[in-house]
Amino acid sequence: MAQSPVPKATRLVKKVGLGAWLTALAADNDVMAPVTVDGKPLFRWIGAGEVGQLDLAAVHTVNSPKGGVMPQTEPMLTYSAVQDGSGGKTLDIKPAAEDRPAVLFGVRPCDAAAIDLVGKVYLTGEFTDEQYQARRDRTTVVAIACAAPAKACFCTSFDLNPGAARGADVVLYGRSGPGSVAEGDAYYAIAYTERGEAFLGGAAAKAAGVSDLPAGERDKLEKIVAAFRGLATPLGKKLGKIDVADKLEGLFESAYWEKVSSRCLSCATCTFVCPTCYCFGVADTGAGGQGVRFRYWDFCKSPQFMLMAGGHDPRPAKKNRTRQRFLHKLNYHHNRCGEYLCVGCGRCVESCPVGLHLPLVVSDVRGLQP
Amino acid sequence: MPKSLALDPKKMKEAEAALRTQAAKLLSEGTVTVFLGHEEGWDGLPVPFFATTPGEAKRLVWNPLVAFNLAKYLLDRLTGEEKVGIVVNGCGSLALDRLLKDRRFPRERLFVVGIPCTGLLDPDKVLALPDEARQTALEGGKAEPGLFLKRCGWCDAPNPVVADVVLGEKVPEEAVPQQYPRVEEIEKMSPAERAAHFKTLYEKCIRCFACRNVCPACSCRECSLDQWEPLWLGKATVPSEQLMYHFIRAFDVAGRCIRCGECERVCSVGVPLMELNDKLMKDITELFGVQRPHVPADVEPLGQWTEGDADLEAAH
Q1: Is residue A142 classed as helix, strand or coil in its secondary structure?
Q2: To the nearest whole angstrom, how far is the Cα of B70 from the nearest Cα of chain A?
Q3: Which of A187, A197, A200, A351 lies 20 to 30 A from B239 at CA?
Q4: Where are chain A's structural domains?
Q5: Does any CB of chain B come closer than 8 Å to the CB of residue A232?
Q6: Does A359 touch chain B (CB under 8 A)?
C-alpha cells in the first residue's frame, strides 16, 4: 500500500486561482466538485457557470464523489431492432457513448482512497470491468488534505490519515498547515502519479496561476505535509485501529445481528452515501424496438436485493441483510483483499436516521462473546 | 407558536422515570414481550430501542430529542400473537393511530404508554450547538423557536390520542391554524417557474427511500415503487423517474399524512418533501372543509364518497 508515495511534482496554487482552474478545466472535462446546495454540502457535476459555488469548507459532503467513477445510473449499451435485409429483424447493439475526461476536484483523502480500494474489486481478479476501467482511465482525482477532521471522522482507524495520498493523482495541502485556509492563502499541489504531473503542467493549471514552489520552501512543505499526515481524527481516537475481522469469523450466527438490525429502516442512506459500497443492478429501459441497458446503484439493505425469480430470498429478514452489510465490510472483503471495505469517512455515522453505523458495530462486536 | 411548546425537561425527566417503571412492569408481568422506545445512542442522541427484559427497560430515555416516530416498527411484528408495548407522545400517537385506522396492526395486540408532550427539539440542530448552549436547551429548557422540530410549530395534538395509560398531566391544548406558507409560494409561481422549482428539488434525490420507509402512512404490504412487473418506477435516477417517485409517494399518502415531517427530517440531501404533502393537505381543507387534515379520523375525506364532493361538482 502506497502510504507515502514519492512526489512527482510539487507546485503552488493560490486559493483565489481555484475558480479559474475549474473554469478552464470545465472546457474539456466533466468536473465534479463539492458545492453547497440549500445548506447541504454535496458532490456534484458542475458546469463552468457553477464554479463560483465551489465550497471546500465542509470536510464531509453528504454524498461521496464515488458517482464520479460509478455513476448512480450508467448506460452500458444501446439496442435497436433493425431490418436484416431478408424481411426479418436483427438486434443492433452499440456500446454506450463515452463521456468526456473527468476531474474529481476537492476529494477528501478518505474518498480518494475509497476509489483505489473499490477499484481492486472491479479491476483485479479473473474479471476486469472494462467500462469501469475506461472511466478510471479518463478520470483525474484532485484531493485536498483535511485541515480540521470532523467529529465523525475515523480514517486513522485504517491505514489512512487526513493527508494521505492513496488514490489521488494530486493532493492539495493548505500552505499554512492544518487549521482553516484563509482567503489569499495558497495550497501546495503535489502530484503523486504521472497523470497528476501532467495535470499540474497542463494549460488549465497555467490559467489558475499554478506556479513553481518558491526557493527554500521545500523544508516547510515537508513539515506541513507531515503535520497533515500526523493529524488525529476525533472518532478514530475513540475507536482505535479496526481489529474485528478475525473475531467476526465466529459470529455469523450471533443473536447480535437480530438485535442491532431491529431498528434498521431498510433504506439505502448508508449504502448510497458510503464511498466504498459498490453493488449495482442492471435494467433495460426502452420502447418501440429500441432502448438502453444501464446499471444503477443497488443496496443490500433492500428487501428486493436478493429476491430471486420464483420468490426465494436468501436474505429474508433485516437480520440477514444487516449482517451481510457489515460482514462484507469487516470480514469478507478483508479475507479477499487484505483490507477492510471502509475508509472511515464517517458518513454512515452522520447520515443514518437511526444511528446504526459501522463504528457502532465495531465497538459492539469487540464486546461480544465468541 | 402553540402554547404547549413550553419545553419542560424536568417534566420529561419525571416521565422518563415513570416510563422505565411502567415498561419494566409490563415486561415482568408478561403483559408485553417487547417494549418500543428510545435509548441513548452512540453520539448521545436517542435511537429507537426495543426492550425485551425488565432490565433493558432501564435503558429507555425520554428527553427533548426523542424525535423518532416508533409506530412504523410495528410492521416488523405483524406475524405472531405477542403483545407489543410502545411509548408515544402526541405526534407519535397520530402515527400510531394512522396505522390503526389503516387497519395495519391490531389494537388488541398493543399496550400504549402515552406521555403528554411539551415540544421536541431537532436533534441535528441541537448536536450542532456549542456545549453550553446545548446544555441550556436540554437541561434548562431554554430553546429558540428555530431549535424545535418543524412539526412542533403547527402541533395541535400534544396529548396522545391513543393510550392505555398516560404518564403525567395533560398539557393544555389549543386550536392551531394549519398554514402552508411554502405551498402558497409555489402556487404563485408560473408553470415554467414551478417546473424549474421541482427539477431543482428532485435532482438532488438519491432515491434511498428513507422518506418512504420512515412514513407511518406508507404501510402497503407491497409498495408499487418496488414492483418489477409492472415497473411503475424505473431504476434510472433521471429527472422523469425522480419526479415520478416523488409524485407517487406524495399522492399515495394524500389524506393520510399526519404532517410529522419525518420524511423531510431523515432526508440526508435535503429534499423538501413536505411541500407536496402540504399541498395535498391544503387542497383537502379547501375542497372538503377539513380543518385538521393531519389528524386520522374514522371517516376521512378521501376514504368516502358523498354527492356534494368537490371533485364530483367539477366533473359535471
Answers
A1: strand
A2: 9
A3: A351
A4: 9-367
A5: no
A6: yes
How far apart are alpha carbons B126 and B64 in whole angstroms?
Answer: 10
SS3 assignment, position A92? strand
| Average pLDDT over all residues of chain B | 93
Q: Is A273 within 8 Å of chain B by CB?
A: yes
Task: Give the pLDDT band of residue A306 (cuts 50, 70, 90).
Answer: very high
Would the pLDDT of A3 be above 60?
no
Q: Which chain A residues are closer than 8 Å to B209 by Cβ? A: 266-268, 302
Contacts of A286 (CB under 8 A, 6+ apart): A79, A292
Residue-level pLDDT at B316: 55
Contacts of B257 (CB under 8 A, 6+ apart): B215, B217, B277, B280, B281, B293, B294
The reported pLDDT for the residue numbered B307 is 81
Distances (CA, A) of B96 to A141, B12, B50, B158, B281: 49, 21, 16, 14, 19
Q: Least CB-CB distance to B208: which of A262, A272, A283? A: A272
Selecting from A262, A267, A355 the residue whose C-beta is nearest the C-beta of B208 gives A267
pLDDT in tens, B244-301: 999 999 999 999 999 999 999 999 999 999 999 999 999 999 998 999 999 999 888 8
Q: Residue A184, exposed/middle/buried by CB under 10 A (0-12, 13-18, 19+)? A: exposed
Residue A362 clears pLDDT 50, i.e. is over it: yes
CA distance A12 to B10: 57
Is this complex scored with an ipTM above 0.90? yes
pLDDT classification of A329: cutoffs 50, 70, 90 = very high
> To the nearest whole angstrom, how far is the Cα of B189 from the nearest Cα of chain A?
19
Say whether residue A255 is in contact with chain B using an 8 A CB cutoff.
no
